Request: fold
Amino acid sequence: MKILELKAEKRTTKGSKAVKKLRDSGQIPAILYGHKQDNVMLCLNEHDFTRILHTGTRMINLTVDNKKESALIKDVQYDNILDCVLHVDFSRIDLTERVKLRVSIELHGESVGVKEGGVLTHVMKDVEIECLPTAIPEKIKVNISELGVGKAIHVKELPVLEGIQYISDPESVVTSVHQIVEAKAVPEEELLAEPEVITKKPKEGEEEVAAESAKKT
Reply:
């Protein structure tokens, strides 16, 4: 597997104003941590990082001050309104040590249950796995062609991939197909019917009082 290269620079500026100025100049604030070493604040070229992000890779060679380190793209924070990256977390890794991370799940194929009128629900968008850094898949592809109405695919039924161990709960539902439940039609005459007025039954002795009052009026 080809490992992509990314250059970064150390930064010392902190605070919202400094970070905004950084973003306005076409850079992204980031941090590198892990392996019992000090955290290092970084800034990245927005174009370079976005290009790598679009490849789907998770592991990169990060060069800082002419020193190259293997790192995992651990977390990416987005501005959903401006559709841009706000911050990136990198975690140092050893190529010989297994890592845990979440990988997106991609459904493909047309479910037989959907063809029969069912509705497909994609419950779990990503799954936690453990593997060597060199074995990290871009995504987990799941074939749903045989998924019928009332059926589901669980984590334990995800495709077996060499060197990949699923960490998420085996019983968790990844995707399912259910039948549409139609609302029961209410007859028009029931909708137009006036509601029955239920009055409180008078207690014993109250009937005579009510009758006597009626005579006086």
Notes: The first helix runs from residue 16 to 24. The chain has two domains: 4-93, 101-178. The mean pLDDT is 86. The longest strand covers residues 67-79.
